Amino acid sequence: MAKERKKSGKREPGSGKAKQSAKRSSGTRRPGADAPDGPGGFGTDDRPAVVVTVDVVVLALLDGALSVLLVERERAPHPGQWALPGTVVGPGEQLVPAATRAVAARTGVSVAPGRLEQLATFADPDRDPRTRVVTVAFVAVVERADPPAGGAVASGRWWPVEEAMAKKGRRLAFDHGVIVGRGVERLRVDLEQSDLGLGLIQEPFTLGDLRRAYEAVWGAPLEPANFRRKILTTPGFVEPTGGLRTVTTGRPAELYGRGIGVRLHPPLVRPR
């Protein structure tokens, strides 16, 4: 009987459908992978109608310029273009762990979960040519632009925000230019009302260090005396350490650390 079936080339009734059904049911088999045929390693036969991903806007100061951590794509679509570190959210996985995993896997840079702030959801049906991809974007500020160590899929690099967002020249993959812009604007707004700027500098710091961080984010100079007065008259914003830093001119600068965490009221309004 077995030899006769082999010779005739006929299949058991329904066997092909069963195999196809089994293949489709494995649609979540490789969460987090980034295969060339589809996000998450899905193939054309088992690709779900909607894929949920996370993308992370990591911001830091590098050589005095606000910079964003990007990865170079090696696979289609958009090979050779730069993108935000991101990944497909695995079955049962929470969004924040997926976001920290994405940054570490793609760049080798570690971002503490407490640094992540949910930014927005981007769900344009055509944002990914492979299938419908809904991404939840996060933004995080870190006090050091640690050199990326590279990851399993792509290597990372810090790009000055102005260069990454330039209308001419470099173009980010997918809609990541829009996402970076939203993340930078969120940071600019938050600096007016909170102590988030302290997350961009290492402790201990001078008020000059803090002012230059604000200037880098806002892209405009601040009057030193007014800035100093605003920071020091806001209880709990910063705390003196008692230490001093020698400077090239003038008297030594006082050193400060983070305070208890406060909201600025009235806000520290950025230059327009």
Spell out the key features of this protein.
disordered N terminus; two-stranded antiparallel sheet; Arc Repressor Mutant, subunit A; elongated; 27% helix; 272 residues; alpha+beta; seven-stranded mixed sheet; Nucleoside Triphosphate Pyrophosphohydrolase; 9 strands
Task: Give a written overview of the molecule.
Helix content is 27%, strand content 23%. By secondary structure, the protein is of the alpha+beta class. It has 2 domains: 48-175, Alpha-Beta Complex (Nucleoside Triphosphate Pyrophosphohydrolase), CATH 3.90.79; 194-258, Arc Repressor Mutant, subunit A (Orthogonal Bundle), CATH 1.10.10.10. The strands form 2 sheets. Strands 1, 2, 3, 4, 5, 6 and 7 form a 7-stranded mixed β-sheet that branches. A two-stranded antiparallel ribbon has the order 8-9. A hairpin with a 2-residue loop joins strand 1 and strand 2 (65-72). It starts with a helix and ends in a 14-residue tail after the last strand.
